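hiii, so i know i said id send this last week but things got crazy w the move. better late than never?? heres the sequnce for the chain we talked about at the cafe, plus the structure i predicted for it. fair warning i was half asleep when i ran it
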Amino acid sequence: MSRDTVNYDLLDRQLAALLDTREWLTNSAQTCAFIMQSLPHLNWVGFYLQRSPEMLALGPFQGKPACHPIPFSKGVCGAAARTRATQRVDDVHSVADHIACDIESRAELVVPIVNDDQLWGVLDIDSPLEARFSHADQTGIEALLTTFKRQTDLPVWDH
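okay and structure toks below
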């Protein structure tokens, strides 16, 4: 399948200019909207926040209503939170404990956000196209989140 070429360096500069406040809620919402509008073939982009032990709570997002809460023991988001490692899945239906919020989602990319050695949350991106996310997409999204973290005062959740 042919992929649209994404200029992540340009997107990173645009996101840096867009995030003109240090407020986490505003920057989270802006980042979701920016990614949703900037990348082709997505159907959901959002943050899940670790606001209690071993559990992710729904944060700002773009797309259909979503699952809430997500335990660390379930799904792709839970795996990213549990391992603190990016998860890139070509076909979510092949993941035994996948949490199907939207049956149309096929591929998923989930990047953990660690702040001062504590998991703050994850960014979850879904696509209706199987194998939508490449290594270049993963690297590009991770760079965007580095910019998000650098320009945002992330709160420490009580848990």
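btw The two ends are 44 Å apart (CA to CA). thought thatd interest u
miss u guys!!
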